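Issue: copy button drops trailing tokens. Both records pasted manually instead:
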Amino acid sequence: MDRQKMLQQLDDVAQWDIIVIGGGATGLGCAVDAASRGYKTLLVEQDDFSKGTSSRSTKLVHGGVRYLAQGNIKLVKEALRERGILLKNAPHVCHNLAFIIPSFHWWQKWYYSIGLSMYDLLAGKLSLGKTKMLSKKTTMQLLPAISPDNLSGGVLYQDGQFDDARLAVNLAQTAVEQGAAMLNYCKVIALNKTGGNISGLVVEDVLSGIKYTLNGKSVINATGVFTDNVIAMDDAGHEPIVSPSQGVHIVVDEKFFPGKQALMIPKTDDGRVLFAVPWHDKVLLGTTDTPVKEITTEPKALQEEVDFIIKHCNRYLSTQIGHGDIKAVYAGLRPLIKVKGQKSTAILPRDHTTIVSKSGLVTITGGKWTTYRTMAIHAIDNAANACKLPKQPCVTDTLKIHGYTQHATSDATLNIYGSDAEKIIELSNQQPSLKEKIHAGLPYSNATVVWAVQHEMAMTVEDVLARRTRALFLDAAAAVEAAPMVAALIAGLLQRDDNWQQQQVSAFTAIAQNYLAH
């Protein structure tokens, strides 16, 4: 992905068929879908791809066991189907993961086992494996960190896991391969109308300050928690439709939760699910559900949210976790659809909604990572219909995502890159200094930084350390220490001066404060 070439297309293309606003899971899915149908497609994102909610998930590709408990069979069935499709089309970045629900009363084992057998049944041919009831002994063998107090056994079921920001980059690459133009750091500042209908928009390249007026037959608003801001550009008097909720996760060393299985507690004090999930040789613990009024690109975990997670995890683990053990903490905002009279965001539906305004603006919001592809189908179908584009069938159910491979590489830390891994190894062999690590406590080499800038449109230190690699999410302090070296590497590739490097390190260090445990 070459940003300069993409910017050139803004001048060269007289009219786009579809312009997508928003470079998170939904927007990226829309760009892949539209471009693979043959529509002339442009995506613009005001920050970096997956900067917001889409890089801050629990890293699960799942049907949603708790949605089953809520009786939302339709959402679970759709999500399980999508889970199967995603694991098939992006095996390098998505994989099976066994989850165990511990049982503390004899009846719980049966209760969870019956519910999860229904989960397997709804998955049909795309099931990842059968649910099993476990004895206390087996549960403790598979979950070495579980406290034996009152434990009577457990139930094991299969779900999916992925790296959200890595999949986002791969979707952007897939869209480009299908003919789309993709631009990060490109902010929409106005919607243009002709005869009351939206006919395009005005964008500003945040990095250069240059403005572009673009013509488009259809514009799709896929901006997640910023949905209402874009709708307001179209209709200043609209009623807000998004009710944002904050979810927080903490990351600790795997010594607190060794083993390959994940832990799932179906119900915490606030009615949410609690997870302990092995991820990149660390463990993710979470999550919370806190309604928020202020929408920001860098949401901050509240102290009470961090306390809540630690307190709940310590109820179930034999080794107690303290605040000093936290390697990183991160917060993400969910774009939940408002429901009249509903105060608690924990019970708001995770379904998505599609709205076509009088002027033709197509808004798609709600949903979750797992269902990004079906959200895109609904958005593109509505957009094509609204602006009378020639009908083309969706092909993304069988479209292999960039990086697709079923073969592991010689360097396990690069497996997440899929088919690109060997190219990164080749890069390291050409220039031995690129084999050096960016930090002793992180698994990433200088070659991954170079690759991110040259092939993945990384423009800043934050892009590299937060999303192209996951350093900030795995060990925030180590990421801060690595920032000057990463800034120097990027500066060499993008011809930036010492001033730029200092600004980048300062900006990244300021952002990283939100990820450090206090």
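Record 2 (pasted manually too):
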Amino acid sequence: MKTRSRSRFRRCAALAAAALLGAAACAAQAADDAARREQRVAAQFQTLVGQSARLRAFLQQMPKGGDLHNHLVGSVYAEDYLRWADEDGYCVKLADKGLVAPPCKAGEAPARGLATRDPALYEQVVDALSMRNFVPGVGFASGHDRFFSVFGKFMPLAATRLGDTVVETLKLAAHDRVGYVEIMVNPSNAYSFAPRAAKKPWQAGDYAANYRQIEAELPKLVAEARVEFDAADAVIRERLRCGTAQADAACVVQFRYLAYVDRAMPQPFAFAEMALGYALVQADPRFVGINIVDPEDNPIALADYRAHMDMFRFFSARAPQVKKTLHAGELTMGLVPPADLGFHIRDAVIAGALRIGHGVDIAYEADAPKLLAAMARDRIAVEINLTSNDVILGVKGRDHPLPLYLAAGVPVVLSTDDEGVSRSDMTWEYIRAAQEQGLDYPTLKQIARNGLSYAFIAGDSLWQADGRTPVAACAASLAALKADAGCADWLKRSDKARLQWQHELDSASFEARVLQQRL
């Protein structure tokens, strides 16, 4: 395969040099070769879909673009938290198996040496910090309740390990051939600032007045946050040995941060987090956007949903350059009254969300076809989290709206959400998409491409608005997989385009390898 491609390219180049064949014809030949290569890979993919082990081997190698919906603390596996608890002398609460700082008190066991000293308790803690071995009705009535119960059990430790949690997230991404991750995380001072701000007089709906009460604190908070993330950067480089001959594969995974707002907290608390998040995105290029998190069915989250969207509009009017991706529609029939299923995604779109997280209840939205058409027209992507939607909401297989989004032409990306808690990874999301949703290889390939096209990383895209047509400056270069002067200049000016270019090279290399292997 490689020999024939190289020979054809050399032959084409020679003909062009002899003025017998133009550059456009060479590019057309290269594009035709790429299309035939993709068709052959797609045919091989179809033979693997019913064979999980062979499908895993195939998809494990496949470049998967970006993971745009990744909660940092939920991305870490329980075993890593227990390893750090061992190193730091933390304690295990015997009642609920949560991790707490030393010294250990009555009803607590030392985490140090736990794996060898008490393997049974160690395994119980792994279960308690994740969805492993969850049985509905045993301890928790639902996967939803079990899932959201685990975060408080490792948060005391996770808060002290910012750099290490990023390291583990990047290692998982590299293993899954994910080239870029947007990580949801807040600076630690958000959790002292927001409660303090919540004690100030609150004027419902008068966001300008509320903002004036906290505005003066923001520069100092941002400066503190930048120092905290500088320290985390140093830990990441050290742990991964980036820039050395022994550099970990995770060093090549690029990442940025998304600040977030806790929707299950009182309005003044959420407003303060939002103010800090907007300020941080404007001041620190490592933060590229803002989100809103916590269970969408929480009573406070439901009652304040429209107020939260009004807050986003207030801050976006002040700083329109700050990009938003909003959790919306992570709901299903029976979890909340029908009235709460009919407007969350629409209101998030109206509030200016460029991406929607989950979007599970789209079919329940008032005039869903019109909303879908608007999302397709405006290229508002949906972050699909198949495993998360299954374990939290029980929505999977034919009940999942992924085919509805695809049929409507809405851009889709696959994401991990909380892969450590869910005991999954990005490759598993692609497997589920193939086996449960019937997605073929070209569709998965486009979804992987979307993971970079709809990322908030800086710079112009390599693709036009449809996400499929190359920009004019790089159309011929993409066909030939060799950047000419014009395309090289485009890539030099855009972080996003460089990531996309590397992804296309990696995808072509992957397809060539697949056609040489026998899976």
